[in-house]
Each structure stands twice: as C-alpha cells, then as structure tokens.
C-alpha cells in the first residue's frame, strides 16, 4: 500500500456513487454502426479505474441494446489502466440476434484508446436440465464475522480507509481477511460473504451489474493466501488481466451472497482464480474465472 496519497475525500455514500457510475448516457443518441454510451469513473485511492466498475458498465451498455433477454455469460479483457478522472465511452456492436440468443461486443475507450474489451451473450428465458454444485458445508453466518470497517478501524492509510469506508459492499472473510497479514493456514482457497451496504433498485440488470462489480474485489486473494502474502506486502503488484463470468440464476446483491474462491495455479507472474457465488438459500447464481498479474519482489533473507 506504500506510495499512495489521498488526494480526494472518501465518498460519503459508496452505493450512490456506484449507482451513479451505472447511469450511462446514450451520448444524445449517437450511433455509427454501433451504439455509443458514456459513463463516469469513480474515485479510487490509487487513481486507476476499478476493474469491477468497467465490467458492470460494459454489461449495462450491452443490456441497453437487448430486449427481453438476460445476460448469461461475459468474457472480458483489461487492456490498459483506466484514468479515474476521465469518463469512459462504450461502443456496443450488435454481433448477432438469433431466435434464442443474442451476442454483443463492447469496447471501453478513454483518450481514443481501448481500455477494456468484452463479448457478452444474452438468452431468452428457457427451461431445461438442471443441476448445480452444492453449497459448501460448515460456513459461518455473515452476522458472526467482522466487517472490513471493524477490522481496519482507524488505520490512517488511504487504501485502508477505502477498504473500510468507501466500498459499496460489506465484505466478510472466511477464515480471515488478508488486508495486513495472513493469519490462517496458507491454502489456495477462501470464501467471502458479500452484500451491498444498502438496498438497490429492483431492476435485475442493476443487480447483475453489481454482482459483476463485486466479483472483481477479492477473487485473486486465493493466490495471495496460498503464499502467505497480504495486500500490504511490500512491493506487491497486481492487476486483473481477464475476467469471465457465467450467470446461472437471478441474484439479489442487496442480500448476502457467498463467494467461494480458489486458485488452481500461479506461474510466470500470473495467477488463475476461480469463484462460485451462492445465494443464502444455497442456489448457485454465478461462476467466475479471472487471471491476474501477480508480482512479488524477491525479499532478501
């Protein structure tokens, strides 16, 4: 966390800030061969756009061009760091509209350069075979776990204060958080309970976008935990490279969701992390995969 300066006040209402970022304009109906939307960027302590914000905005932009179909999968690549002081322009290419499925390509631009690229697929409501992985056993209730604000307290570092006060989600770790130290066993798996700090609008598109937003918070922590590395480890650098997500069932993000995470491999300065998201009733609502850059300096012995 070293070298970060707090140059703006923390947002007083993180949920309102997130919803404001979701409120894309249609740029006065601008359209070439693609649909054009513009969205604001949120403040972040490190000055770069949060990847989850771009994921969510891209999904909303794509959804604006689809009628009566819900997103069931998305695959995105983070191409360049985004500047939080600039808005983001989203172009949506209507690749295909079939009888049951529709496909959209979304590009996010700042300063005329692409910072993110995504393809998403949408499907009409349908019936078919059903099964799912079971909700994990022996998971403590979220009410029994400390929040980030309770764990971090008055730590003055700007990133710590962002974790504690400025994220729109309550995030509670199992077995323990790794903000400053890794106190539990060094294993390549963990779980977190997540829930927005207050109720969201009833629109399912907002909840789906918010789920994509939150899915980028802690997914790479299973890599860190395996090697006993916390977020405050000196010199550690991380960045999301790509992000895939499959939406199995509708989810309400203002209710507790369990995000189970694991890392099958890390190598070459990269790590792969997988996640499964369940609602409190035990339904599997989404599956996530992300590869990230994870670089840790060699420490002198």
UniProtKB/TrEMBL annotation:
What is catalysed by this protein?
a fatty acyl-CoA + H2O = a fatty acid + CoA + H(+)
Entry-linked Pfam families = 4HBT_3 (PF13622), Acyl_CoA_thio (PF02551)
Q: Which residues form the Acyl-CoA thioesterase-like N-terminal HotDog domain?
A: 40-123
Record flagged with keyword Hydrolase: yes
Q: Does the keyword Repressor apply?
A: no
GO MF terms listed in the record are:
fatty acyl-CoA hydrolase activity
Leader sequence segment: none
Q: Which residues form the Acyl-CoA thioesterase 2 C-terminal domain?
A: 185-293
Q: Which InterPro entries match?
A: Acyl-CoA_hotdog, Acyl_CoA_thio, HotDog_dom_sf, TesB_ACOT8-like_N, TesB_C
Q: Name one GO biological process term.
A: fatty acid catabolic process
**Which keywords are on file for this protein?**
Hydrolase, Lipid metabolism
The annotated subunit structure for this chain is: Homotetramer.
UniProt lists the family membership as follows: Belongs to the C/M/P thioester hydrolase family.
UniProt name for this protein: Acyl-CoA thioesterase 2
Q: Which organism is it from?
A: Candidatus Rhodoluna planktonica
């Amino acid at each position: 966390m070293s070298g970060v300066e707090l140059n703006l006040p923390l947002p007083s209402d993180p949920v309102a800030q997130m919803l404001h970022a979701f409120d894309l304009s249609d740029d006065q109906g601008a359209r070439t061969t693609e649909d054009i939307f513009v969205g604001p960027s949120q403040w972040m302590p490190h000055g770069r756009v949060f990847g989850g914000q771009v994921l969510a905005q891209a999904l909303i932009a794509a959804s604006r061009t689809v009628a009566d179909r819900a997103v069931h999968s998305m695959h995105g690549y983070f191409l360049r760091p985004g500047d939080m002081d600039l808005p983001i322009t989203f172009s949506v290419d209507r690749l295909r509209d079939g009888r049951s499925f529709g496909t959209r390509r979304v590009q996010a631009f700042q300063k005329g350069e692409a910072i993110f690229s995504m393809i998403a697929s949408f499907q009409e409501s349908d019936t078919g075979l059903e099964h799912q992985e079971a909700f994990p056993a022996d998971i403590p209730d979220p009410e029994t776990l400390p929040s980030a604000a309770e764990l971090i307290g008055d730590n003055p570092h700007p990133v710590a204060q962002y974790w504690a006060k400025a994220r729109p989600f309550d995030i509670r770790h199992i077995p323990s958080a790794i903000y400053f130290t890794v106190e539990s066993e060094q294993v390549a798996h963990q779980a977190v309970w997540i829930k927005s700090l207050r109720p969201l609008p009833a629109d399912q598109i907002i909840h789906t976008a918010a789920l994509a937003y939150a899915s980028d918070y802690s997914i790479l922590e299973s890599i860190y935990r395996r090697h006993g590395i916390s977020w405050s480890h000196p010199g550690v650098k991380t960045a999301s490279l790509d992000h895939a997500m499959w939406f199995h069932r509708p989810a309400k993000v203002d209710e507790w969701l369990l995000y189970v995470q694991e890392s099958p491999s890390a190598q070459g300065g990269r790590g792969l992390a997988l996640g499964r998201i369940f609602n409190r009733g035990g339904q599997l609502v989404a599956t996530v995969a992300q590869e990230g850059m994870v670089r840790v300096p060699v420490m002198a012995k």
